[in-house]
């Protein structure tokens, strides 16, 4: 059996995605090690994995909660989320990439140390910027894209981060030009660092700059065929679509007494570990849902002590989402890729309220493909939220369509397919191509 090192971005979404795959590999006898930020120390050990710790910035004076840097970053930039996506490019997307590339520079030497110590058979990363130490290690490595695959640019695919659909094609060129303009200087400096550090060559073509390279060995992305984009140019042969990648739900979830024994539609509300930090938005959603004949489970997030729930709801700072989803009728989500793909995995329609990053792309894709409703997160009319929930709940043909998709996805788990491909790379030590 081999040693597989997972290196996810320091947020719950990518980490949970890797945990699902790591569980399968560990069950097959492989040694699975997670390389995580110090703020996550103990989180993966509690799930039975080895950890190696690193930092993406100098240590703060006070102890950090897991992913605290990004929680603070989102909180401080939340006013930008009320602006059109093209304006967010310079005010949110570029500063986010700047923080990410600073982290890649800071951690490079530490990653070299970790890879030398572990001598892994395969390194698996789930990030959105390059870490040159992976390529420079000389070891096979895997890139996972657990964001919307518009990140893999193509002239037939809407610009990443735009939230544009096929009906907005006339706006695509202006968005792409704004993306190039707002990121040009940052990209140039980072591309020089990546090349000088042995990480390969970053591209910056007509569709915009890339801050990460694909792996020449194996690349995976998580998106069901029913949502995926048709492409003008097929992805390289080492790219494989995982469809969905849902981690084990663990123990079954029992409905709290406040929700059990009632027959109103059951709704799950989650804006993710970062989006839920917007207390005013979360409280508005809670208050509006409280006026409707609904039962609601709320993922309260890091500001849980500042939120008020009525008796018709139940919530906690952390909730077991994989165990909850099979029970609910409709999900209200920020449009994070994990939640979107998990909802399709379980056949659940969505109301999507995007906040940042690829959430706009997922929201529009869900809307365009008819699997839910996209609402303007901060400006929807009070009555629109419950109306959307009830319409989706009563849509029998949609539920039948989603049920068929769920049956297909559950019959071929992406966690198992990913583990198969990674295991094959570990054994063969050569690129793993489709077919």
Describe this structure in a few short sentences:
This protein has helices spanning 12-27, 68-77, 85-118, 132-136, 172-196, 272-275, 279-290, 321-324, 337-346, 359-368, 382-394, 396-411, 414-428, and strands at residues 3-8, 31-37, 50-54, 122-126, 141-145, 204-205, 208-209, 218-221, 239-241, 266-270, 295-299, 313-316, 330-333, 350-352, 372-374. The protein is of the alpha/beta class. The radius of gyration is 21 Å and the shape is globular.
Report what the structure shows:
This protein has 435 residues and is an alpha/beta fold. 40% of the residues lie in helices and 14% in strands. The strands form 3 sheets. The chain has a 7-stranded parallel beta sheet with strand order 3-2-1-4-5-8-9, with helices on both faces. A 6-stranded parallel beta sheet has the order 12-11-10-13-14-15, sandwiched between helices. Strands 6-7 form a two-stranded antiparallel ribbon. Helix 9 (337-346) links the parallel strand 13 and strand 14. Helix 3 (85-118) runs parallel beside helix 5 (172-196). The longest helix is centred in the N-terminal third of the chain and has 34 residues, at 85-118. The two termini are 25 Å apart. The relative contact order is 0.13.
């Amino acid at each position: 059996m081999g040693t597989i090192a997972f290196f996810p971005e320091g947020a719950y979404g990518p980490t949970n995605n890797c945990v699902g795959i790591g569980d399968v590999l560990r069950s097959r006898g492989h040694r699975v090690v997670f390389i995580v930020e110090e703020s996550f120390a103990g989180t993966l050990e509690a799930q039975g994995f080895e950890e190696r710790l690193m930092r993406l910035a100098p240590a703060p004076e006070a102890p950090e909660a897991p992913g605290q840097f990004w929680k603070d970053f989102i909180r401080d930039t939340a006013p930008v989320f009320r602006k059109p996506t093209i304006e967010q490019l310079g005010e949110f997307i570029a500063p986010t990439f700047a923080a990410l590339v600073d982290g890649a520079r800071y951690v490079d030497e530490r990653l070299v140390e970790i890879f030398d110590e572990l001598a892994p058979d395969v390194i698996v990363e789930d990030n959105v910027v390059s870490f040159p130490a992976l390529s420079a290690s000389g070891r096979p490595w895997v890139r996972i894209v657990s964001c919307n695959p518009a990140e893999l640019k193509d002239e037939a695919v809407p610009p990443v981060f735009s939230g544009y659909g096929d009906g907005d094609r006339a706006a695509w060129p202006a968005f792409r030009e704004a993306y190039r303009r707002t990121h040009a200087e940052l990209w140039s400096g980072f591309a020089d660092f990546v090349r000088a550090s042995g990480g390969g060559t970053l591209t910056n073509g007509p569709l915009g700059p890339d801050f990460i390279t694909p792996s020449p060995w194996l690349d995976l992305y998580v998106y069901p065929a029913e949502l995926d984009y048709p492409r003008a140019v097929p992805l390289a042969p080492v790219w494989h679509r995982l469809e969905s990648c849902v981690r084990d739900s663990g123990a079954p979830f029992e409905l709290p007494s406040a929700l059990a024994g009632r027959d109103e539609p059951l709704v799950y509300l989650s804006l993710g570990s970062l989006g839920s930090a917007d207390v005013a938005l979360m409280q508005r959603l809670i208050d509006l849902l409280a006026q409707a004949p609904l039962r609601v489970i709320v993922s309260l997030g890091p500001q849980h002590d500042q939120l008020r729930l009525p008796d018709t709801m139940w919530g906690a700072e952390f909730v077991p989402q994989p165990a909850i989803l099979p029970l609910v009728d409709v999900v209200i989500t920020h449009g994070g890729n994990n939640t979107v793909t998990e909802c399709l995995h379980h056949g659940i329609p969505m109301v999507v309220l995007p906040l940042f990053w690829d959430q706009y792309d997922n929201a529009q894709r869900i809307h365009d493909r008819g699997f839910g409703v996209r609402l303007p997160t901060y400006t929807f009319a009070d009555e629109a939220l419950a109306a959307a929930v009830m319409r989706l709940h009563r849509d029998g043909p949609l539920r039948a369509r989603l049920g068929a998709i769920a049956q297909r996805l559950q019959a071929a788990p992406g966690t198992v397919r990913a583990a198969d491909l990674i295991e094959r790379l570990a054994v063969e030590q050569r690129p793993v191509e489709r077919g």
